[in-house]
Amino acid sequence: MDTAHPLCPHCGSRMLRWANPQGSSWGGEFQYVCFHDECPYYVGGWTWMQSHYNVAVSYRYRLDPATGQHGPLPVWSPQALRSDIIFDAEEAPHVR
After folding, report:
1. Collapsing DSSP states into helix, strand and coil, what is residue 11?
2. What's the average model confidence in pLDDT over 12-17?
3. What percent of the chain has a predicted confidence (pLDDT) above 70?
4. DSSP bridge pairs for 55
5. 3-state secondary structure of 61
6. Are 12 and 39 in contact (CB under 8 A)?
7. One-character DSSP codes across 73-84
8. What values do phi and psi take at 74, rounded to 5?
9. How far apart (Å, rounded) are the C-alpha atoms in residues 76 and 28?
10. What are phi and psi of 93, to 5 degrees?
């Protein structure tokens, strides 16, 4: 499986490496996550979670490069989890 920064299937944006939390059940060092704030998966997640669970949260699309598993990564704000993005040296100044 080619894992060189895959594209999000929901918006076509380049996914970023995000460090797995220590102690998580995910193997490997990172997941690929779509951090595009206009991604329909993320944007629609706010409404879906509010209407189904009455909570003000959403989710971002994630892909585990080690297993190919994919699905939602819960977030509570647009900035949530961004501090754990693993930037390549050439992209750090260009991506917020």
Report:
1. coil
2. 96
3. 90
4. none
5. strand
6. no
7. EEESSTTTTGGG
8. -60, 140
9. 24
10. -70, -15
DSSP reduced 3-state for 63 = strand
**Per-residue DSSP letter, 67:** T
pTM of the predicted model over 0.85: yes
Residue type, position 65, single letter: P
Here the tokens at position 70 are 């994919």
- The 3-state secondary structure of 20-38 reads CCCCCCCCCCEEEECCCCC
Report pLDDT digits (tens) over 58-93: 999 999 999 999 999 999 999 999 999 999 876 654
End-to-end CA distance of the chain: 28
Say how far apart CA 31 and CA 61 lie, in whole Å. Answer: 10
* Rounded Cα gap, residues 73 and 81, in angstroms: 10
